[in-house]
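Box 4.2: Ligand-aware structure prediction
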Amino acid sequence: MTQNSQKSTCSYCGVGCGILVKKDANDKVMVEGDPDHPVNRGMLCSKGRNLHYVVNDTSDRLLHPQMRWSRSHPLEQVSWDTALDRAAQVFKSVIKQHGPDSVGFYVSGQCLTEEYYIANKLVKGFLGTNNIDTNSRLCMSSAVVGYKKTFGEDSVPIAYADIELADCFLITGANPAWCHPILFRRIEQHKEKKPDVKIIVIDPRRTDSAMYADLHLQLIPGTDIILYNAIGRRLLERGLIDKEFINNHTEGFASYKEQVTKTSLKEAARLCGVPLNDIKKAADLIGLSKAFISMWAMGLNQSVVGTNKNFALLNLSLITGQVGKPGSGPFSLTGQPNAMGGREVGGMANLLAVHKDLMNPEHRREVAQFWGVDEISPKPGYTATEMFEALETGKLKAIWIICTNPAVSLPDLLRVEKALKNARFVVVQDISNKADTLEYADLVLPAAGWLEKEGTMTNSERRISYLPKLVEAPGEARPDVEILCDFAKRMGFKAFNYYNTEEIYQEYCAMTKGTHIDISFLNYDRLKTEGTFQWPVNEYRHPGTARLFEDKKFYTPSQKAIFNIPYTITNRSIMPSESFPLILTTGRVRDQWHTMTKTGKVSRLKTHYPKPVLEINPSDAFVLNIREGYIVEVSSENGSVRVKATLTDNVRKGVVFLPMHWGKKLGQNLNRANNLTQNMVDPQSKEPDFKFTAVRVENY
Ligand code: SF4
């Protein structure tokens, strides 16, 4: 498919695979992997291979703006003028009556960087509130805190090219075989070529990734910090540490040593529920390797102690000196295609663009000056879950939801539904009429989807790619930047008169100048003609930067990496009790994406895991008199779901697993995993505790 094909990037996970797009004689889109792309070298996973169905099938698309004057009225089709005038009128009136902090925007890691940038500029610069947060808060905000506190900035130090240079991988709290398949394929290919390469997986479930590993530590959920510290202790005891790196390039080692030596290996093995020898073996594989990579995702981040888990894991890279070297480094895998781009433009309630800090007055002044506004509010905005709490209490009156479906993806959904019902004004800007959140919308704005607009994205390894517009959006759907700029102008803000998307990109690039994420020498022309680039790209003809910190100079004031000491080694979730004796952990399945508004409409993607089922260990099932295929009711303090049970020792005794994708519209009414999950968050990252909920399971 090389003739007449155009290059783009997959719109699903943070791996960021290159795609070739071509149209057939009937103008239908066809896709295949780009053989020249540095990430996937022609490979695509099942989701990527079926992206054309999502584009070609417009039967579920939102085609026209819709509005209702009150919740008792149905939504009616209106013109764009009517829709955006109404939005501006309501936002002006709410802000006048209740102040700027009474409105908020909830955006997405699937937004393109230009969209993210404009939404942030609008909210933080012009509406005068920091109430803008993203669904990336639910995925990787704990990793952001981990990187910032360890290296001085939210900077992923590593590249995919390091995979082929590593000889030991520690994959923890992630199932890349299903959730980052092409990345995992590269690890598999590397091991096929070099069988001595070792893979360790730490996960309470025996996932496909764990089955492929040389060593699987099937820990009790929530005991990760104890386990990483135990590995650290063993490395210290065996002298498998890099003293030169620790002495010259880090701070805080003494406190680290003190913490990890407090718990014996034997005690750690007992607390984590793993064999002592496996802890020793994991430590020895890491310590004796020349190049060691750790990889993690939601299993660590989505925890009430998520930042502490990140600290404990990052510390293993520091004691072994495995940072800024070929084939080594700590690698947080982003779940969404542009979670990283969102981080760059400050797409969270506590961040500012170009990695500047909201709590730093000088940074606020610089950003305000760049945007030509008097000031940026010093008050941190509501984070994802806080925003919905504020809707529930009435502190937040109006919310604008872009490219995300919180009525399925947030924790404690019965409460989220109450909050949305309580809101005075809900705007939903989306591509799909299947988004469950539409039920609560007062205003619906149809957005253009993948291939229907241009812009850029950044994948997990800091690689920026340009996505061209290749097809027309159906009906009256418009690109998100266009909708936001149109709204901003109706609010009276003159700084949103852009000629095109490229101008927005250039403005953002100018803002990066002189920072650690400088891309001032990366314009659309280079991206279109030369391909993708890893930031920083800070000089004329700069080729991009594969690996950070090769000079061992970190972005902290002392230029040293910091050992951060977890304030607790134990979990702080609500523990199992007599009423709720099992631990529920949630996650993704191989062929579905988030709340299934896209993958859910591709029949062939439903065959692998057609319906949500509760995975339960046979010994727990025996005690509860549950057999294969029985319908069970799972209850937590928050709600309940009814699903079929499947008996498998892939989950350890005492643990059950339920996938998170299914919502009301696309599944049965009562199988949403997030009816059960707790609205508890990590105190530093504000990331929810999706991976640990005390539940009861009964025959229904
Ligand atoms: Fe798309 Fe991720 Fe699959 Fe690559 S691995 S094709 S980016 S879903």
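In the box above, the bound molecule is iron/sulfur cluster. The longest strand covers residues 640-647.
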